[in-house]
Amino acid sequence: MSTLNSFEIYSFTTLNQIHKDYIYKIWNNEYPVNLAFKDLQEVDNYLNNLIHAKHFFVVNEHNQLQGWAVIFERDYEKWFAIIIESTLHHLGLGRKFLNRLKTFSTELNGWVIDHQNDIKANGEPYHSPLAFYLKNDFVQISETRLELNKISAVKINWRE
Prior knowledge:
Blueprint: E1 8-12, H1 17-30, H2 40-48, E2 51-59, E3 65-74, E4 77-84, H3 93-102, E5 107-113, H4 130-135, E6 139-147, E7 152-159
Antiparallel strand pairs: 1-2, 2-3, 3-4, 5-7, 6-7
């Protein structure tokens, strides 16, 4: 079993095909099925539309990718997305990853699904990570929501 110290976090401003393939895989495995990318071209389109993106990957002791995050600019604010393989939840890795992101900005914003109505590609329920973010010094901006056909989410914010 991996321990928290057996993971390293690396950052990149440009991605290779291995990175993009991994983002496609982890996104489609861990996010709700209604948010899934149809193909690698959709991943490229998403990534190419991120402004001033800095990518982060968690790598285990066997040099395997285990998580991805990105910080980027949107509407003059710093935003982020983060995904860790669900088999590694509750090890402290999410907190470690999030704390690393916080060293690159004085503020982070994100959209978080705040309900339990979505299903992942494997048929398991998607568990809202809102409580995790609130425990890690984020605040919920209840009046700011993203309501689309494929996602219902609330804005969260962290400030140094």
